[in-house]
Design a protein that fits this description.
alpha+beta; Ribosomal Protein S8, Chain: A, domain 1; Methane Monooxygenase Hydroxylase, Chain G, domain 1; two-stranded antiparallel ribbon; 9 helices; globular
Protein backbone atom coordinates (compact mmCIF):
# COMPACT_ATOMS: atom_id res chain seq x y z
CA UNK A 1 0.00 0.00 0.00
CA UNK A 2 1.37 3.44 -1.00
CA UNK A 3 0.69 6.67 0.87
CA UNK A 4 1.22 10.19 -0.42
CA UNK A 5 0.27 13.59 0.97
CA UNK A 6 -1.69 15.86 -1.35
CA UNK A 7 -3.07 19.36 -0.77
CA UNK A 8 -6.82 19.85 -1.24
CA UNK A 9 -7.46 22.82 -3.54
CA UNK A 10 -10.54 24.85 -4.37
CA UNK A 11 -12.25 24.60 -7.77
CA UNK A 12 -14.89 27.21 -8.46
CA UNK A 13 -17.13 28.56 -5.72
CA UNK A 14 -17.89 25.41 -3.77
CA UNK A 15 -15.97 22.37 -5.10
CA UNK A 16 -12.72 20.95 -3.78
CA UNK A 17 -10.23 18.85 -5.79
CA UNK A 18 -7.18 16.72 -5.04
CA UNK A 19 -4.70 15.37 -7.60
CA UNK A 20 -3.88 11.67 -8.04
CA UNK A 21 -0.18 10.68 -8.40
CA UNK A 22 0.71 9.97 -12.03
CA UNK A 23 1.90 6.40 -11.33
CA UNK A 24 -1.30 5.56 -9.45
CA UNK A 25 -3.42 6.89 -12.31
CA UNK A 26 -1.44 4.85 -14.84
CA UNK A 27 -1.74 1.65 -12.80
CA UNK A 28 -5.50 2.12 -12.32
CA UNK A 29 -6.09 3.08 -15.96
CA UNK A 30 -7.32 6.58 -15.07
CA UNK A 31 -7.13 9.51 -17.42
CA UNK A 32 -8.88 12.82 -17.93
CA UNK A 33 -12.59 12.09 -18.27
CA UNK A 34 -12.46 8.73 -16.43
CA UNK A 35 -15.40 8.13 -14.11
CA UNK A 36 -14.87 6.98 -10.52
CA UNK A 37 -16.96 6.23 -7.43
CA UNK A 38 -16.37 8.42 -4.36
CA UNK A 39 -17.36 6.32 -1.35
CA UNK A 40 -17.96 7.95 2.05
CA UNK A 41 -16.57 5.54 4.68
CA UNK A 42 -17.14 7.68 7.74
CA UNK A 43 -13.71 9.06 8.63
CA UNK A 44 -12.23 8.47 5.15
CA UNK A 45 -13.10 8.66 1.45
CA UNK A 46 -12.36 5.82 -0.97
CA UNK A 47 -11.98 6.34 -4.73
CA UNK A 48 -12.91 3.35 -6.88
CA UNK A 49 -12.64 3.31 -10.71
CA UNK A 50 -15.74 2.11 -12.51
CA UNK A 51 -15.22 -1.48 -13.61
CA UNK A 52 -14.16 -1.88 -17.21
CA UNK A 53 -15.99 -4.67 -18.99
CA UNK A 54 -15.80 -6.16 -22.45
CA UNK A 55 -19.26 -4.89 -23.34
CA UNK A 56 -22.33 -3.12 -22.10
CA UNK A 57 -23.66 -3.95 -18.61
CA UNK A 58 -26.46 -6.56 -18.53
CA UNK A 59 -29.97 -5.20 -18.92
CA UNK A 60 -33.13 -6.46 -17.21
CA UNK A 61 -36.80 -5.56 -17.54
CA UNK A 62 -38.51 -4.54 -14.31
CA UNK A 63 -41.78 -6.28 -13.37
CA UNK A 64 -44.87 -4.03 -13.32
CA UNK A 65 -45.13 -4.04 -9.50
CA UNK A 66 -42.85 -1.35 -7.96
CA UNK A 67 -41.93 -3.40 -4.87
CA UNK A 68 -40.91 -6.38 -7.01
CA UNK A 69 -38.86 -4.02 -9.17
CA UNK A 70 -37.16 -2.72 -6.03
CA UNK A 71 -36.19 -6.23 -5.01
CA UNK A 72 -34.30 -6.66 -8.29
CA UNK A 73 -31.45 -4.52 -6.95
CA UNK A 74 -30.85 -7.11 -4.22
CA UNK A 75 -30.64 -9.91 -6.81
CA UNK A 76 -28.18 -7.89 -8.91
CA UNK A 77 -26.10 -7.19 -5.81
CA UNK A 78 -25.99 -10.79 -4.60
CA UNK A 79 -25.10 -12.07 -8.08
CA UNK A 80 -21.78 -10.20 -7.91
CA UNK A 81 -22.47 -7.78 -10.78
CA UNK A 82 -20.78 -4.39 -10.54
CA UNK A 83 -23.22 -2.65 -12.88
CA UNK A 84 -26.58 -3.35 -14.50
CA UNK A 85 -29.44 -1.56 -16.24
CA UNK A 86 -33.13 -2.06 -15.47
CA UNK A 87 -35.73 -1.02 -18.01
CA UNK A 88 -38.68 0.73 -16.34
CA UNK A 89 -41.89 0.73 -18.29
CA UNK A 90 -45.53 1.58 -17.76
CA UNK A 91 -47.36 4.15 -15.63
CA UNK A 92 -45.60 3.02 -12.44
CA UNK A 93 -42.05 3.49 -13.76
CA UNK A 94 -41.46 6.44 -11.43
CA UNK A 95 -42.58 4.46 -8.40
CA UNK A 96 -40.39 1.53 -9.47
CA UNK A 97 -37.34 3.82 -9.63
CA UNK A 98 -38.09 5.14 -6.13
CA UNK A 99 -38.49 1.53 -4.88
CA UNK A 100 -35.08 0.65 -6.37
CA UNK A 101 -33.44 3.63 -4.67
CA UNK A 102 -35.09 2.85 -1.34
CA UNK A 103 -34.07 -0.81 -1.52
CA UNK A 104 -30.50 0.19 -2.35
CA UNK A 105 -30.27 1.88 1.05
CA UNK A 106 -30.18 -1.60 2.63
CA UNK A 107 -27.06 -2.50 0.62
CA UNK A 108 -23.42 -1.48 1.09
CA UNK A 109 -21.83 0.52 -1.72
CA UNK A 110 -24.84 0.59 -4.08
CA UNK A 111 -26.13 3.56 -6.04
CA UNK A 112 -29.17 3.73 -8.30
CA UNK A 113 -29.42 6.44 -10.93
CA UNK A 114 -31.39 7.10 -14.10
CA UNK A 115 -30.01 7.07 -17.63
CA UNK A 116 -31.04 9.45 -20.40
CA UNK A 117 -33.36 6.82 -21.88
CA UNK A 118 -35.21 6.40 -18.56
CA UNK A 119 -33.63 3.11 -17.47
CA UNK A 120 -32.42 2.62 -13.90
CA UNK A 121 -28.66 2.16 -13.60
CA UNK A 122 -27.43 0.09 -10.66
CA UNK A 123 -23.75 0.46 -9.71
CA UNK A 124 -21.96 -1.47 -6.99
CA UNK A 125 -18.72 -0.05 -5.59
CA UNK A 126 -17.84 -2.71 -3.05
CA UNK A 127 -14.66 -4.77 -2.91
CA UNK A 128 -16.08 -7.88 -1.22
CA UNK A 129 -12.64 -9.44 -0.84
CA UNK A 130 -11.67 -6.69 1.60
CA UNK A 131 -14.63 -7.27 3.91
CA UNK A 132 -13.91 -8.47 7.44
CA UNK A 133 -16.61 -11.15 7.22
CA UNK A 134 -16.15 -12.71 10.71
CA UNK A 135 -16.49 -9.23 12.24
CA UNK A 136 -19.58 -8.49 10.13
CA UNK A 137 -21.20 -11.75 11.22
CA UNK A 138 -20.61 -10.73 14.84
CA UNK A 139 -22.28 -7.41 14.00
CA UNK A 140 -25.33 -9.38 12.81
CA UNK A 141 -25.51 -11.01 16.23
CA UNK A 142 -25.15 -7.63 17.94
CA UNK A 143 -28.04 -6.18 15.91
CA UNK A 144 -30.19 -9.24 16.68
CA UNK A 145 -29.39 -8.82 20.38
CA UNK A 146 -30.49 -5.19 20.10
CA UNK A 147 -33.85 -6.24 18.67
CA UNK A 148 -34.29 -8.82 21.43
CA UNK A 149 -33.50 -6.06 23.93
CA UNK A 150 -36.33 -3.98 22.47
CA UNK A 151 -38.69 -6.93 22.81
CA UNK A 152 -37.64 -7.46 26.42
CA UNK A 153 -38.38 -3.79 27.24
CA UNK A 154 -41.77 -4.01 25.53
CA UNK A 155 -42.70 -7.07 27.56
CA UNK A 156 -41.51 -5.40 30.78
CA UNK A 157 -43.50 -2.18 30.37
CA UNK A 158 -46.52 -3.66 28.58
CA UNK A 159 -46.25 -2.23 25.08
CA UNK A 160 -44.10 -0.53 22.46
CA UNK A 161 -43.19 3.13 21.98
CA UNK A 162 -42.20 5.36 19.06
CA UNK A 163 -38.62 5.23 20.31
CA UNK A 164 -38.68 1.42 20.13
CA UNK A 165 -39.81 1.53 16.50
CA UNK A 166 -37.18 4.12 15.55
CA UNK A 167 -34.45 2.04 17.16
CA UNK A 168 -35.80 -1.07 15.42
CA UNK A 169 -35.62 0.65 12.02
CA UNK A 170 -31.93 1.51 12.54
CA UNK A 171 -31.04 -2.01 13.71
CA UNK A 172 -33.02 -3.61 10.90
CA UNK A 173 -31.28 -1.54 8.21
CA UNK A 174 -27.83 -2.16 9.70
CA UNK A 175 -28.53 -5.90 9.87
CA UNK A 176 -29.69 -6.06 6.25
CA UNK A 177 -26.70 -4.07 4.94
CA UNK A 178 -24.24 -6.42 6.63
CA UNK A 179 -26.19 -9.60 5.86
CA UNK A 180 -26.41 -8.83 2.13
CA UNK A 181 -22.73 -7.85 1.95
CA UNK A 182 -21.73 -11.14 3.62
CA UNK A 183 -23.88 -13.21 1.25
CA UNK A 184 -22.51 -11.33 -1.80
CA UNK A 185 -18.98 -12.12 -0.60
CA UNK A 186 -19.76 -15.80 -0.01
CA UNK A 187 -21.68 -16.34 -3.26
CA UNK A 188 -19.10 -14.67 -5.51
CA UNK A 189 -15.92 -15.90 -3.86
CA UNK A 190 -13.72 -18.17 -5.94
CA UNK A 191 -12.15 -21.07 -4.06
CA UNK A 192 -11.48 -24.81 -4.24
CA UNK A 193 -14.55 -27.01 -4.54
CA UNK A 194 -14.86 -28.00 -0.84
CA UNK A 195 -14.48 -24.40 0.30
CA UNK A 196 -16.84 -23.18 -2.40
CA UNK A 197 -19.57 -25.55 -1.18
CA UNK A 198 -18.88 -24.45 2.40
CA UNK A 199 -19.34 -20.84 1.24
CA UNK A 200 -22.78 -21.70 -0.12
CA UNK A 201 -23.70 -23.33 3.19
CA UNK A 202 -22.45 -20.24 5.06
CA UNK A 203 -24.57 -18.00 2.79
CA UNK A 204 -27.62 -20.19 3.45
CA UNK A 205 -27.02 -20.17 7.22
CA UNK A 206 -26.66 -16.38 7.15
CA UNK A 207 -29.92 -16.18 5.19
CA UNK A 208 -31.74 -18.29 7.78
CA UNK A 209 -30.31 -16.10 10.54
CA UNK A 210 -31.70 -13.09 8.69
CA UNK A 211 -35.09 -14.80 8.42
CA UNK A 212 -35.10 -15.34 12.19
CA UNK A 213 -34.30 -11.68 12.77
CA UNK A 214 -37.07 -10.69 10.35
CA UNK A 215 -39.51 -12.69 12.48
CA UNK A 216 -38.28 -10.77 15.53
CA UNK A 217 -38.79 -7.47 13.66
CA UNK A 218 -42.34 -8.46 12.82
CA UNK A 219 -43.00 -9.40 16.44
CA UNK A 220 -41.98 -5.91 17.60
CA UNK A 221 -44.28 -4.32 14.98
CA UNK A 222 -47.13 -6.66 15.89
CA UNK A 223 -47.17 -5.88 19.61
CA UNK A 224 -49.49 -3.08 20.79
CA UNK A 225 -48.45 0.33 22.07
CA UNK A 226 -47.56 0.89 25.70
CA UNK A 227 -50.34 -0.23 28.03
CA UNK A 228 -51.92 -2.55 25.45
CA UNK A 229 -49.79 -5.63 26.09
CA UNK A 230 -51.49 -7.42 28.98
CA UNK A 231 -49.41 -10.23 30.44
CA UNK A 232 -49.50 -11.89 33.81
CA UNK A 233 -46.40 -11.20 35.90
CA UNK A 234 -45.28 -14.83 35.69
CA UNK A 235 -45.82 -14.88 31.90
CA UNK A 236 -43.79 -11.70 31.44
CA UNK A 237 -40.97 -13.11 33.55
CA UNK A 238 -40.84 -16.36 31.59
CA UNK A 239 -40.94 -14.59 28.22
CA UNK A 240 -38.08 -12.28 29.26
CA UNK A 241 -36.13 -15.37 30.27
CA UNK A 242 -36.74 -16.93 26.85
CA UNK A 243 -35.63 -13.75 25.09
CA UNK A 244 -32.46 -13.69 27.19
CA UNK A 245 -31.66 -17.25 26.14
CA UNK A 246 -32.35 -16.36 22.51
CA UNK A 247 -29.66 -13.67 22.77
CA UNK A 248 -27.13 -16.32 23.81
CA UNK A 249 -28.18 -18.78 21.11
CA UNK A 250 -28.13 -16.23 18.26
CA UNK A 251 -24.70 -15.05 19.40
CA UNK A 252 -23.48 -18.67 19.41
CA UNK A 253 -24.98 -19.29 15.96
CA UNK A 254 -23.15 -16.24 14.56
CA UNK A 255 -19.85 -17.38 16.07
CA UNK A 256 -20.24 -20.84 14.51
CA UNK A 257 -21.00 -19.36 11.08
CA UNK A 258 -17.84 -17.23 11.39
CA UNK A 259 -15.76 -20.14 12.69
CA UNK A 260 -17.40 -23.52 11.84
CA UNK A 261 -17.29 -26.16 14.56
CA UNK A 262 -19.01 -29.53 14.30
CA UNK A 263 -19.09 -29.92 18.10
CA UNK A 264 -20.49 -26.48 18.84
CA UNK A 265 -23.08 -26.78 16.06
CA UNK A 266 -24.28 -30.06 17.57
CA UNK A 267 -24.48 -28.47 21.02
CA UNK A 268 -26.45 -25.56 19.57
CA UNK A 269 -28.97 -27.90 17.94
CA UNK A 270 -29.47 -29.69 21.27
CA UNK A 271 -30.03 -26.39 23.10
CA UNK A 272 -32.47 -25.15 20.47
CA UNK A 273 -34.41 -28.42 20.63
CA UNK A 274 -34.61 -28.18 24.42
CA UNK A 275 -35.82 -24.58 24.33
CA UNK A 276 -38.42 -25.39 21.67
CA UNK A 277 -39.77 -28.09 23.98
CA UNK A 278 -40.07 -25.57 26.83
CA UNK A 279 -41.92 -23.11 24.61
CA UNK A 280 -44.33 -25.80 23.38
CA UNK A 281 -45.04 -26.72 26.97
CA UNK A 282 -45.81 -23.09 27.83
CA UNK A 283 -48.10 -22.80 24.79
CA UNK A 284 -50.02 -25.92 25.84
CA UNK A 285 -50.54 -24.43 29.33
CA UNK A 286 -53.38 -22.11 28.20
CA UNK A 287 -51.49 -18.78 28.35
CA UNK A 288 -53.23 -15.41 28.04
CA UNK A 289 -53.96 -14.28 24.44
CA UNK A 290 -50.96 -11.96 24.06
CA UNK A 291 -48.63 -14.43 25.77
CA UNK A 292 -49.80 -17.11 23.30
CA UNK A 293 -48.98 -14.79 20.37
CA UNK A 294 -45.48 -13.99 21.68
CA UNK A 295 -44.71 -17.63 22.51
CA UNK A 296 -45.84 -18.76 19.05
CA UNK A 297 -43.55 -16.17 17.43
CA UNK A 298 -40.62 -17.24 19.63
CA UNK A 299 -41.26 -20.85 18.59
CA UNK A 300 -41.16 -19.80 14.93
CA UNK A 301 -37.82 -18.05 15.51
CA UNK A 302 -36.44 -21.18 17.18
CA UNK A 303 -37.51 -23.35 14.23
CA UNK A 304 -35.65 -21.10 11.78
CA UNK A 305 -32.58 -20.95 14.03
CA UNK A 306 -32.63 -24.76 14.13
CA UNK A 307 -32.55 -24.86 10.33
CA UNK A 308 -29.61 -22.45 10.39
CA UNK A 309 -27.84 -24.62 12.98
CA UNK A 310 -28.23 -27.75 10.84
CA UNK A 311 -26.78 -25.86 7.87
CA UNK A 312 -23.79 -24.76 9.98
CA UNK A 313 -23.35 -28.38 11.05
CA UNK A 314 -23.02 -29.41 7.39
CA UNK A 315 -20.79 -26.41 6.75
CA UNK A 316 -18.46 -27.51 9.58
CA UNK A 317 -18.22 -31.03 8.12
CA UNK A 318 -17.37 -29.71 4.63
CA UNK A 319 -14.89 -27.16 6.00
CA UNK A 320 -13.12 -29.93 7.94
CA UNK A 321 -13.02 -32.10 4.82
CA UNK A 322 -11.49 -29.22 2.87
CA UNK A 323 -8.73 -28.97 5.50
CA UNK A 324 -8.17 -32.72 5.44
CA UNK A 325 -9.67 -33.32 8.88
CA UNK A 326 -12.10 -36.21 9.36
Amino acid sequence: MSIEVRRVQRLGASSLVVTIPKEWARRLGLEAGSRVYLIDEGDSVRIVPLSKSSGEPPEFVAPPIPKAAGDMVVCIYLSGLSEARIKLRGPLAGEALMALKERALSLLGVQVGESEDGAAVVKVALDSEKLDVPHMIRVLARDAEGILGILSRIVERGGSSEEDLRELEVLERDFLRNQHAIIRYLMTRRAGTPNLVANYYAALATGYLGFAVDLLDNMVKLLPEQGGLTLQAEEASRIKGLLSRLVELISLEARIIANPSFTRAGELIAELSSLRGEVRELISGSPSPWAAVVLAKIHDVLRVLTLSAYVTLCMAVISSAGRGKH
